[in-house]
Amino acid sequence: MTKLMIIYTGGTVGMIYDEKNRSLRPISFGEIRDHLPELYRLGYHFFVHPFKPPIDSSNMHPDRWVELVEIIEQHYHYYDGFVILHGSDTMAFTASALSFMLENLSKPVVLTGSQLPIGQIRTDAKENIITALEIAATRINGHAAVPEVCIYFDFQLFRGNRTKKYNAEKFEAFYSMNYPPLAEAGITIKYHQPFILPPPTEPIRFHKKLDPHVSVLKIFPGITPETVDAILNTPHSRAIILETFGSGNAPTAAWFIRSLEKAIKKGKIILNITQCDGGSVELGRYETSEKLLEIGVVSGYDMTFEAAITKTMFLLGQDLSTEEIICLLQRPLRGELTLPESTNSKAVHSYWTNSPLS
Ligand code: ASP
């Protein structure tokens, strides 16, 4: 019998509307189960580990990611797959963080949640939970169909570290602009094999060290030297995610470049990702990014903000030199970025151009 572990962290998926207080309040997994009798018909063996109390995902924290990794580690060999019920607001951060912390994953870790609470008639929670469980249980040619950390939401399965919550209202709350869905659920669940990571050849490694000393500098026309300097000089911050325009462009003003250069000389890492949801940083393509390249700003290519933040926390937490961190930031570790000239880049490109959705 397929054995699955459900980790219930909280989120809308496990909330009901409290008439008295006129707000959503969290419920226990027992109450979720009462709303989901279909669970028993799936024919799997379940073990449920609830967060006590369940949390709104706005309160998610790197310490809780470590806790999730510890829970998975303790049960890894016993279960065929893991489903994490999680609030949608920070689900993409958790999925990204776990993807880096679980190296050589051979079992599915599927995060899901919902936009409407499970107690509501039109809820999307039931479909999301049931299909996430089915995906976590599916094996193809003797291997887990999706040996990855992924997000299942509204009939689509995405690689976790490629996903973004982009809509607070639609059932289709997530998208993955730079990487095709790993599977789509209709009458059957169709897996897009070429885009799913192959099963690992090395044993799993559980990483439990993260360093959250990362800052974010999101530029905008008119940003002042005071703001830039305050962020670049945040005490204890070891890396800065620089959110730039378009394909990695930023103001060419001398004061701006000088500030970045000073921070780099002090040993800080500056990682350039684009403010656009789709596309990649291409340092040197325009004059407005040439200087960044010259002073040692690092390209984050097509990484999401969520992947950039969590990958940086992960690498800072390992025992690595600044040079090693810079090198690894620019390489795909868990499929979180596509290098422009890679074979993968061609496959992704042809998916979008042939897709009926494009
Ligand atoms: N605030 C909720 C959370 O992220 C929203 C949701 O679950 O959709 O926990």
UniProtKB/TrEMBL annotation:
Keyword match Hydrolase: yes
Annotated L-asparaginase N-terminal domain ranges read 3-194
User: Entry's Pfam families?
Assistant: Asparaginase (PF00710), Asparaginase_C (PF17763)
Active-site residues are T12
Gene Ontology process terms (BP): aspartate family amino acid metabolic process
**Which residues constitute the signal peptide according to the record?**
none
EC identifiers of the protein: 3.5.1.1
Question: What Gene3D superfamilies does this protein map onto?
Answer: 3.40.50.40, L-asparaginase, N-terminal domain
- Enzyme class comes to hydrolase
Q: Where is the Asparaginase/glutaminase C-terminal domain?
A: 213-325
Q: Which domain of life is it from?
A: Bacteria
Keywords assigned by UniProt, alphabetized: Hydrolase
Q: Which GO terms describe its molecular function?
A: asparaginase activity
What family, per the record? Belongs to the asparaginase 1 family.
Family matches, as NCBIfam families: asnASE_I (TIGR00519)
- Record-given protein name: asparaginase
Source organism (scientific name): Thermoflavifilum thermophilum
